[in-house]
Specification:
The protein is α+β, with helices and mostly antiparallel strands. The protein folds into 2 domains: about 50 residues, Roll (Structural Genomics Hypothetical 15.5 Kd Protein In mrcA-pckA Intergenic Region, Chain A); about 160 residues, Pseudouridine synthase (2-Layer Sandwich), CATH 3.30.2350.10. Strands 5, 6, 7, 8, 9, 10, 11, 12 and 13 form a 9-stranded mixed sheet that branches. Strands 2-1-3-4 form a 4-stranded antiparallel sheet. A hairpin with a 2-residue loop joins strand 3 and strand 4. It is elongated, with a radius of gyration of 21 Å. The relative contact order is 0.15. The structure holds uracil.
């Protein structure tokens, strides 16, 4: 990881303060002074700030049930940020592994482990995301077949990966996809002439949403490891 991230993760200094202490020569890596905040370091390196050995905090893995009219961003914009619901320290170190739209509700995973979130979000790892999709019009058999095989979204050149669809009733389905393209679910149903009127994410990989709206909990180590595969 970058030296400035390592120092951020090991102290209560903010980003600007970290950059300054590094540039001012207060930080030593394996005995050598390092002034470059973006230098790559390894967690096993001995990193000293003003004579004190730094130890990064353990990575955090959080599950949250996102309410509607909140945004998956670290700052409030048109809607309040999801992070307002998290009463824990060092929020700026966290990011969301697979954002939801402001009007989408349900399962969101939050972490400071970039490698782990890459496993969750990158399509090559085929991590399944399950959405409960409420539709304006009944889903036709033809549309179901198209979506299941993969559909070309407007403005794109590659069709979506094959999806699974379980019918709950004519205007509600459980959709399972392994990608996270921009507004993917809404655009998939638009591509077959329908419209999503409500969207709720219920599951990511083996992790099922099991907290009330606006609530959160830490993932267990089994849950964290299951998503690494
Ligand atoms: N697909 C969408 O269209 N919106 C979301 O929030 C998530 C997936």
């Amino acid at each position: 990881m970058r030296l400035d991230r390592f120092v951020c993760r090991s102290t209560h200094l903010n980003k600007d303060q970290v950059t300054k202490v590094i540039q001012d020569g207060h930080v030593f890596v394996n005995g050598n002074p390092v002034n470059n905040p973006v230098q790559q370091v390894h967690e096993n390196n001995t990193i000293i700030l003003d004579g004190e050995k730094l130890r990064p905090r353990k990575p955090r893995y959080i599950l949250m049930n996102k309410p509607a009219d909140t945004i998956c961003s670290n700052i409030d914009e048109a809607y309040p940020s999801l992070f307002n619901y998290l009463d824990i320290e060092n929020l700026s170190e966290l990011h969301i592994a697979g954002r939801l739209d402001a009007d989408t509700t349900g399962l969101v995973l939050i972490t400071d482990d970039g490698r782990w979130s890459y496993h969750v979000t990158h399509p090559q790892y085929l991590c399944e995301k399950v959405y409960r999709v409420s539709l304006r019009a009944p889903l036709t058999e033809e549309a179901r077949t198209v979506l299941t095989k993969g559909v070309l979204l407007q403005g794109e050149e590659e069709p979506t990966h094959p999806a699974k669809i379980q019918i709950i009733h004519s205007k509600q389905v459980l959709l399972t996809i392994t990608e996270g393209r921009f507004h993917q679910v809404k655009r998939m149903f638009a591509a077959v002439g329908n419209r999503v009127v409500a969207l709720h994410r219920e599951k990511i990989g083996s992790i099922q949403l099991n907290v009330d709206e606006g609530k959160w909990r830490y993932l267990t180590s089994d849950e964290v490891n299951a998503l690494k595969r």
